[in-house]
Design a protein that fits this description.
By secondary structure, this protein is of the alpha+beta class. The chain has ten helices and 40 strands. The strands form eight sheets. Strands 20, 21, 23, 26, 27, 31, 32 and 40 form an eight-stranded antiparallel beta sheet that branches. The longest helix has 31 residues. It is globular and about 90 Å long. The chain starts with a helix and ends with a helix.
């Protein structure tokens, strides 16, 4: 599949966008807009947190917030909320309603009519496009009534379910913005919406290793900004992408044809220019005298220390930052150090919750993926909190969870509105959890949540003796001065283990600037293979939060270049797989090792199976140049195989369940295998290594226990014999 088709497939998979007839579009109040298209997003994707599976409103939990953003280079001319819901059949029609707010302003009150009770009902709510900003919030407020007097807000008959078919429809136009680098990272990188960023990379011809390195640095910079959203980088040689903003690389001696009029440069420079034959798209030109200047320009932009203003930047007297230390990735919580919550928070107000039933607050926490916990280790939390006092005979309880498992809870006093609590995650022996099914265990990516639950008895009374109840909204705040400490953990991992790579980019993420990583990619690599390199760099940066400024890129494997490096190998499948089974996976792993060492690759004797659509593969093995280093090979069979592989790599949340040493990607599924020799990386103490070995081989543990019993028994026997002889004398 061509890069253009890959770009089109990427965009269409995340949002339905259809061209609009100009006669049907609401008039706009701007003259610098072009084109028109409709974007539809399911409401379930707009629930904060991104993990909601349903929207249910009740008498107590009667408000739902929905967040959405608009790109800096887009303008909304028409907005419609297509609402589908099922209301409780016990509701009183008309008196029950749904109020829709946009950024705090009431847009429409939708009455729950008799036709809407007990069945799926659809309606449309128009939103004022002039109130839409870069970051927006829709509020759904449910006002429900089931009887005329003596209602109980907690009644089970007060409910309304918002159906998954509900969606937000936005009619948008592209805005022509000025060529001003001060807008960076806009308009190239999208950080306002939840959609992935798609940025084509344009080269004059197949790039050499230095140009690939410059592109890899820029793609990792994009990944740092997009984080969990994902990023994709279609590659073009000497032609303009069909649509969208793009990056282009040009030297004085090698530049795309559409940049022939660009003046010769006297050093590394960055330009923001109008894309050819486009009324709104922009291109970021990375220019230099030679390829070394391109690398320097990319590093300078990634440093974020430069003052960006105007349409071009000339880079002078740039000093590179020193190499990062191991495990100092900005996104990771360090071990054996007390860290305040304020260092982990992502935005102000993240740890505040309000409402009649305040929802939990969430705080993501990432740690190094190769941590190994022993019996004395754990997570200690010194929690400081504030809350509204429970009224009268009410009760309130604070609960802390990690990855949705309860860690601790405490009953809150009605005499105070604040408190301090020491909480601790129970320790365990072994590596971090890699699956949500592993209870009460830390993982590489964790979700700490805190919730205050209020309990109140509400009585309806009777028509003759009605008891009115006034519900006051509650508020809970976790103090950002609260702290956590990870202690008693070691860095140790059994390899090869693709789970660590797909979830946390391990082992490359250990040195976040990739100073211990070498990428091996052919000098004549296809556009799809270069895309694989760029997507992988962005995926690693989304994990670490750092840019790959120290990456090494080579076009041939050699001991001199790869000794002491973790290797990222990108290329074609070295053999044709006869079938998706363990024996073939082991042959593929051996073929990669032989290829890196320059040895002959033996094909399987008989090819029984060859997929028409091509396949992709991810293979991990021990480096043939350094026993403490790892190779991860990203392989594909033709353009279709590259497409399948890149579809997985572009999203940081994909392939989370991949395990073993070899993973085969086809159109239907991903099949993984545990093959090859194992090895370990890390500094686990010798006595824990013995225990780790014993725990993996129970029969060996039984044998050692028997040997110990024989030795101890023999010693006791001889001691008793000596003691008896001594008494006899």
């Amino acid at each position: 599949m061509t890069s253009a088709l890959l770009l089109a497939a990427t965009v269409s998979s995340y949002a339905q966008q259809t061209p609009h007839d100009a006669s049907t579009v609401a008039p706009v109040w701007r003259t610098d807009v072009t084109g028109s298209f409709t974007q539809q997003t399911p409401l379930i994707r707009l629930v904060p947190g991104g993990q909601a599976t349903a929207i249910r409103l009740t008498g107590i939990s009667n408000i739902q917030y929905l967040d959405f953003g608009v790109r800096a280079d887009e303008l909304v001319s028409q907005a419609t909320l297509e609402l589908a819901f099922t209301a409780s059949p016990a509701l009183i029609p008309i008196r029950s309603q749904i109020n829709v707010f946009l950024n705090g302003q009431l847009q429409q009150s939708v009455p729950v009519t008799a036709d809407a009770l007990g069945k799926l009902y659809r309606t449309s709510v128009s939103l004022d496009p002039k109130q839409i900003k870069s970051i927006n919030q829709i509020t759904l407020e449910f006002v429900g009534h089931y009887q005329n007097i003596c209602e109980r807000p907690s009644s089970e008959t007060l409910w309304l379910n918002v159906d998954a078919k509900s969606h937000l429809s936005l009619v948008k136009q592209k805005v022509k913005i000025a060529n001003d680098l001060a807008r960076w990272p806009a308009p190239f990188i999208d950080t306002f919406t939840n959609n992935p960023t798609v940025i084509p990379f344009v080269f004059a011809k197949t790039p050499d290793s230095e140009t690939k390195k410059a592109a890899a640095i820029l793609s990792s910079l994009v990944g740092k900004h997009t984080q969990w959203r994902g990023a994709d980088f279609p590659v073009y040689f000497n032609r303009v992408p069909t649509n969208g903003h793009f990056f282009v690389f040009a030297t004085n001696s090698s530049r795309p044809a559409f940049l022939n009029d660009l003046p010769m440069v006297e050093g590394p420079q960055i330009f923001m220019m109008d894309a050819p034959e486009s009324r709104s798209d922009k291109m970021l030109v990375i220019a230099g005298r030679d390829e070394a200047d391109l690398v320097l320009a990319a590093k300078a932009l990634a440093s974020e220390d430069l003052v960006l203003i105007g349409d071009k930047l000339r880079i002078q007297d740039f000093k590179e930052s020193p190499e990062r230390q191991a495990y100092d990735a900005p996104n990771w919580v360090p071990i054996d150090e007390t860290i305040a919550f304020s260092r982990i928070m992502q935005y102000p107000g993240q740890l505040t919750s309000r409402g009649y039933a305040p929802p939990p607050v969430h705080m993501p926490m990432s740690i190094a993926p190769d941590l190994y916990m022993v019996g004395t280790g754990g997570l200690d939390v010194n929690l400081k909190y504030r809350y509204t006092k429970p009224e009268g005979g009410d009760q309130a309880q604070l609960r802390m969870r990690i990855n949705n498992y309860l860690i601790d809870s405490v009953n809150l006093s009605s005499q105070s509105s604040s408190g301090i609590r020491e909480m601790r995650l129970p320790s365990f022996n072994g590596p971090l959890a890699t699956s949500p099914s592993e209870a009460l265990a830390l993982a590489a990516q964790n979700d700490l949540s805190f919730e205050v639950v209020y309990r109140r008895e509400l009585s309806e009374g009777s028509p003759d003796n009605c008891k009115s109840v006034v519900l006051l909204p509650h508020q809970m705040e976790i103090d950002p001065a609260s702290t956590m400490t990870l202690n008693g953990l070691f860095h140790y991992a059994e390899m090869p283990n693709l789970t660590l790579f797909t979830q946390s980019a391990y082992p490359y993420s250990v040195y976040a600037d990739l100073s211990r990583t070498a990428a091996v990619i052919s000098k004549e690599a296809s556009a799809e293979k270069v895309t694989t390199l760029l997507n992988t760099m962005a995926r690693i940066a989304s994990v670490t939060g750092a840019v790959a400024t120290k990456l090494t890129v080579v076009d041939q494997a050699s001991e001199a270049a790869l000794d002491g490096k973790d290797i990222l190998f990108i290329g074609e499948m070295p053999i044709t797989l006869p079938d998706f089974k363990k024996e073939n996976a082991e042959e593929l792993q051996n073929a990669i090792a032989n290829s890196l060492k320059g040895e002959e690759i033996l094909q399987p004797e008989e090819v029984l199976f060859s997929p028409d659509g091509g396949v992709g593969a991810i293979v991990s093995l021990q480096s043939p140049f350094d026993s403490d280093r790892t190779v991860v090979a990203l392989l594909s069979e033709g353009q279709s195989g590259s497409y399948l592989l890149n579809e997985q790599l572009k999203s940081p949340s994909s392939m989370k369940t991949v395990a073993g040493a070899v993973a085969i990607i086809n159109e239907q599924s991903i099949v993984d295998f545990k093959v090859g020799d194992t090895y370990s990386i890390g500094d686990l103490p010798w006595y824990h290594k013995i225990w780790e070995t014993m725990s993996n081989y129970p029969l060996l543990l039984v044998l050692c226990a028997l040997i110990c019993a024989v030795l101890v028994g023999t010693g006791i026997f001889y001691f008793m014999r000596l003691w008896v002889r001594g008494r006899a004398k």
